[in-house]
Amino acid sequence: MQCIIKLKEWSKVTQFLKAKNNEITKEMRYVAKNENIDVNKLKENIAKGYVVILANKNHKNLKPVGIGKDLIIKVNANIGASPDKSDLEKELEKLNVVLEAKADTIMDLTIVDDYEYIDEIRRKMIERCDVPFGTVPIYQAVVESKGPGNLTLENYLKVFEKHAKDGVDFTTVHAGVTRNSIPLVNKRLMAVVSRGGSFLLHWMKKHNKENFLYKHFDEILDIAREYDVTISLGDGLRPGCIADSTDEAQIYELQKLGELAEKCKERDVQVMIEGPGHIPLDQIKMNIKLEKHICKGSPFYVLGPLPIDTAAGYDHVAGAIGGAFAGMYGADFLCYLTSKEHIGLPNIEEVREGVVIAKIAAHSVDVARGNEKAIEQNHKMAKARKKRDWNKMAKHVIDLKRFKDLRRKECDGDPALEKADKCSMCGEYCAFKIYQKD
Amino acid sequence: MQCIIKLKEWSKVTQFLKAKNNEITKEMRYVAKNENIDVNKLKENIAKGYVVILANKNHKNLKPVGIGKDLIIKVNANIGASPDKSDLEKELEKLNVVLEAKADTIMDLTIVDDYEYIDEIRRKMIERCDVPFGTVPIYQAVVESKGPGNLTLENYLKVFEKHAKDGVDFTTVHAGVTRNSIPLVNKRLMAVVSRGGSFLLHWMKKHNKENFLYKHFDEILDIAREYDVTISLGDGLRPGCIADSTDEAQIYELQKLGELAEKCKERDVQVMIEGPGHIPLDQIKMNIKLEKHICKGSPFYVLGPLPIDTAAGYDHVAGAIGGAFAGMYGADFLCYLTSKEHIGLPNIEEVREGVVIAKIAAHSVDVARGNEKAIEQNHKMAKARKKRDWNKMAKHVIDLKRFKDLRRKECDGDPALEKADKCSMCGEYCAFKIYQKD
Q: Which of these, A15, A436, B176, B392, could form a disulfide with B256 (CB 3.0-4.6 Å)?
């Protein structure tokens, strides 16, 4: 079989190739146990490209995470410094906070003018991060090239390899932004809102050449397969407002992503697809089905989607609404949004809240999809609530910190109130009590 | 025609009867203009019972609001004092805040031991409230009767009439909680979580009699039709956790509500149906379709629904997710939830945030349903965002207060930053700028 021959060629192999070769890895066992599913079924889904396991061989102390078919929905949190707000300690604090809030994966989107600082932030983060860690190598490549116009394949591959060696588990690669899409982008209200997309459009227009990531995709795959870096095919042309949603530029790029996903699969590199963006609720189902069709069941990683443009200050909530719809129709992986999206870089509390709110969307979908563990957690919560047992409720609530904070304020530090069999909402006219009295 | 005969019998008539008699009222004109729809079409929908116009004849300075088919989704905010937190000034402040946050309707759920105080709060609120105002008369009836066990029809009707005379536009009536449902409630994990429902179950068990609201429903309708109070048929048996959702008790009650809605319609009293509660995402469509089928297209007023039980501290967000699904499948009216739901009585800021978040869910559905005004607002926002025109964005954002607060913090009071053509998220690496530079 072809994959056996490939195995001989390579020094190291991916979870994908092992699954194809019917081999069960310790990473597969870990994920299957965690998700309470059959490991053989998981292996089959990996072999078909329906599931990826994020696990770079160089990421020490990693708890691998599976994403895709029949698994619970995962939540990613983006952190990282920007040119205007760069503070390593603050970003490491954010890392701790999102881990505490139980983000399933973390992406470092740091882009600052000093590339050694980017290296430092990334390495320090990976060291402390026991969940899969992602990056967008083109950000650092732009910095190292001194501007997007000076990008070269060589620079890009150098950065990509550095990230891979450091243990980055998944990387966004905007290889689907191609020259033919330029006139399509010009038709839009918002043109381009992806940083990676804008870098590549700029480069293609300046040099009048095809996107080098698209042309030399195989060279990226060479590195990815060596370390088992999962390729997250970036949607550089994701719509930036609902007026542009599901438009020609977006669908043209999605078709390119489908083509590139096939290349990944042929070379046994794990792949997932990044998705929009800004999509009204009535177009979400169509978008998910389209991705699953065009990309042959590859896991779908959605940012939001935001169903409206007018929720600035509450984009975390609007994104949770869109994310819940996406999840119900088959999306596998939600990227959180914070309340600061479209306004500025979030602070630590905003980052924390962003993770919790995305997890609420994900958990709502897990329950609806019949995940037994998720349903059981809710039943336990209901039983504790019936008894007004605040300590037991605290064990099952999604965000313990907020729950405790609100309770504390509610009871105003009064231990008698904390132990009292009531809450201030109904007081003596509590439906439970009236019913139970009978 | 029968309705003409009725017209002669009554001193005053409802919007419903006028619509049936092909008469266009000033309230219908107001609503049609506000919603940018054809007034004849609106009148037909009212005549069929698909739309209600909330407008008690005694409510001075009211801007009437339509709820139902082909109209934008409305949001209700519950306020009111509880036995443990009773402060008239605070509740009036909440009223101002929810009006500012653009709640479409307000319900006063005050239940305190002093019934004169309940009268005072209600009257002061109605005086200041220019949107439709709702109450749950059984709360005050229980107080006036000194406990749910002592409720009498006479007491209830006296309170109901007082509310109607004061100008209450809609009232929750838990007439569908009937004796046969008692064994069904006992099968549940959470039994009953509606206060009104618990009062009536208690009364029925104590007296071994049928729910007097059910038996004497016609007498309630006599008052409702005189003042054109819209009956909001309460779901006293709404599930209190996802384990109980769409269960026998809930569906049994819904059938009773369908029967009672028919009675309202026969007597030309406007009616809407209140709905669950706690419903996982996969059961929401079914619940909406069931209500629309059983209650022959009556407007559906949903509380949440909450798709999970474990989001305590974030029930406003979980409710917005559930509300958006409900809206997409045909719910007409969303009752907000606050972050304090299941924890305590919300404070002013929590009430404000609750309204905004429910409005985000409603607006997302309006956009998806193709409402032109809603879509236009989003396009204007996108155009302003493209230009980084923060002043223009402020005109189109759903919550101006939060937007300004976050911007102010972001710019740290620095006027140069406020005018600067950037935000701290991407700084110089802004996708728009890179694209527009070309």
A: B176
